[in-house]
Amino acid sequence: MKLIFRWLINAGTLILLASYLPGISVSGWYAALITALVLGLVNALIKPVLVLLTLPVNILTLGLFTFIINALLFWFVASVVKGFEVAGFWPAFWGALIMSVVSWLVSSLLKK
Q1: pLDDT tens, residue by residue, 46-102
Q2: Domain boundaries, given as residue ranges, for the chain
Q3: Residue (of 105, 36, 102) closest to 74 by Cα position
Q4: Can you tell me the distance from the alpha carbon of 86 to that of 67, in angstroms, rounded to the nearest whole number?
Q5: DSSP letter string over the chain?
Q6: How distant is the alpha carbon of residue 28 from its chain centre?
Q7: pLDDT for 111
Q8: Is residue 34 within 8 Å of 10, Cβ to Cβ?
Q9: What are the distances in angstroms from CA 18 to CA 26, 31, 83, 97, 108?
Q10: Is 75 left (phi over 0), alpha (psi -120 to 50) or beta?
Q11: CB 3.0 to 4.6 Å from 35: which of 20, 70, 84, 95, for a disulfide?
Q12: pLDDT at residue 75 in the model
């Protein structure tokens, strides 16, 4: 039940991002739900490998390179999912940052 709730919150966050951030667009709830699912899979499967491969750069930047990885993965998902578009790196950066914060807040609230 918690997983479905997180999924719906992330899809809602994507809808809100599309309405407030220029450069990000979502065609509707169906695209937002698919995008949230693909983002979750990418963050669970691909992100740990990328963080491990870029560990020296991540150490040199004191972990700030993780923001770049998040933005690039967010942008990558936009190229895979039909109905979800990101216009460039900076909209991807801000979208990924906001999605990360919302996901962290929802996860911390659901643990209690």
Answers
A1: 999 999 999 999 999 999 999 999 999 999 999 999 999 999 999 999 999 999 999
A2: 2-111
A3: 36
A4: 16
A5: -HHHHHHHHHHHHHHHHHHHSTTEEE--HHHHHHHHHHHHHHHHHTHHHHHHHTHHHHHHTTTTHHHHHHHHHHHHHHHHSTTEEE-SHHHHHHHHHHHHHHHHHHHHHHH-
A6: 17
A7: 84
A8: no
A9: 6, 12, 11, 14, 24
A10: alpha
A11: 84
A12: 96
Alpha carbon of residue 51 to chain centroid: 15
pLDDT band at 1; cut points 50, 70, 90: confident
Q: How many residues does the chain have?
A: 112
